[in-house]
Amino acid sequence: MSVRKVVSVLALLLPLAGFAQAADDKEKAAAVTDENGKYYDAEGNPTFKIEEDGTVDWYTFSGYRRYHSDCHVCHGPDGVGSSYAPALAETMKNIDYGTFLSIVAEGRKNLGAGKESVMPAFGDNKNVYCYMDDLYVYLRARAVGAAPRGRPPKKADKPQQAKDDEASCMGG
């Protein structure tokens, strides 16, 4: 089964399982579990962990890097938006995990007020889909005001699980 199909199924099932969220905030995004350096909120959604000294978890840092590699061209630096793509640092407050996965994998086309906007599908791009959780946690941190603009000043070491997952997804 292709990654695009798996993500589509997840996007449909997660809201039915109670994973849909209204406006996200720091309280909802708080990390309550840690699985090998990857953090999850109370509902089981991937989230960030930022220490008081500004050190971000590996996945948030990786999401920053991936975002600025593949997404900032349209959505602006640090998710602040542009004239033709929304400010993800704002819109992510109202996009649940399943919807995010679906939009990134399948793309989206919006027609309204005489304006057309198109988000291309990245479900076949390993440089994006292998890191969708990383992108999600970085943008979530930006959306709830936990991560400031710019490169995170400090990062946690890359967990072995992240290395293993990356090698598996990228085919290495």
UniProtKB/TrEMBL annotation:
Please state every residue range assigned to the domain named Cytochrome c.
Answer: 62-125
Q: List membrane-spanning regions.
A: none
Annotated region described as Disordered, given as residue ranges? 147-172
- Gene3D superfamilies given in the database record: Cytochrome c-like domain
Which Pfam family, just one, is annotated for this protein? Answer: Cytochrome_CBB3
The domain of life is Bacteria
Compositional bias per record (Basic and acidic residues), positions renumbered to this chain: 154-166
The leader peptide range reads 1-22
Q: Which UniProt keywords apply?
A: Heme, Iron, Metal-binding, Signal
Q: Name one GO molecular function term.
A: heme binding
Q: Which organism is it from?
A: Mesorhizobium alhagi CCNWXJ12-2
Recorded protein name is Cytochrome C protein
